[in-house]
Amino acid sequence: MSITSASPDLAKTANSPEPPRKKRLVGLDGQNISLIGALVFVLVLFGLLNDNYLSLSNMQVIAEAATITGLLAIVQTVVIICGGLDISVGSQVGVASVVSAMVFTTTGSNAFVGILAAVGVGMLVGLLNGLVIVYGRVNPTIATLAGLAAYKGLAQLLSDGRAQGYVLNDDFFVFLGRGKIAGLPVMVWILILTALGVHVLLKYTDIGRNVYAIGGNDTAARLAGISINKYLVFVYALIGVVCAIAGILLTARTGSGQPVSGSEGLELKAITAAALGGCALKGGKGGIGGTLLAVALLGCLENGLTVEGINSFWQNVAQGALLVLAVVIQQRRSGERAVGLPD
Predict the structure, then answer these.
(1) What is the pTM of this model?
(2) Which of 60, 134, 178, 208 has its CA 20 to 30 A from that of 145?
(3) How far is Cα 296 from Cα 102, in angstroms, rounded to an integer?
(4) Count of CA atoms in the C-beta half-sphere (13 A) of 157
């Protein structure tokens, strides 16, 4: 897919002023420093409450559990910066997980065919979302809310509502789900490489600058010559591919294709992480560094509550509260008038 790229000068004109070079490279601003402080507080708190919380084995559990959420939060960050939203990411993961396991089983236990099939389906699903939003002129929230239900139903139809296949008899799936490189789980390496790739794309290429420009001011971006429609379709296709990778990792981690279990609720976690990480929900602002810090915070908080035996329902309460808190902070910082209140 070709993407029309505006010149850097025009893209900068359409976008809001970029932060200082040093701050952009390091990735530390007020938002990220606050996240680091909150993360340290959570680690210290649960470390004092439970001696095993800060153990190497538990840190590995936290990292592996946060990988899938992290992948989705990364692409959620991109689409939010572009002025959109994708509520269907969890259901897309379920479809990819089922497809990877079922194709693996039906092709004589060929892991690479199963993986390619899942990535292909993920790209098609992402393209479908993008085309509906762009050419159907459907609001991204409504379009992907419909996708949330539709893709969840598709995963259940394909799998008859049950876990499908068994992949732990294959060395490559075992390597993806349980292998290590230089002491780090393979899943974590995939998250790191994805984060680095998307960070470079956003910060150091014309494509990334134009994505910020579209979210910052789509009218100015259009006048600057940026093909907004192509960019939106590209971003949603990218989401589909990364969701497919997350679905493959879910299959490798659980040992079978999961239509719902393991993927339900991921959309809330991804959006919460992106918002906590500094993404302005109206677009044009955000970064991968802040999102990853937020993913780490959510993962450590969730694991700490689990280790302490606190009812898992409270985890949903905490996620919802954090999302509201992130939006409130954004509104306060932007200086916008509160709805229904006088100036």
Answers:
(1) 0.87
(2) 208
(3) 32
(4) 7
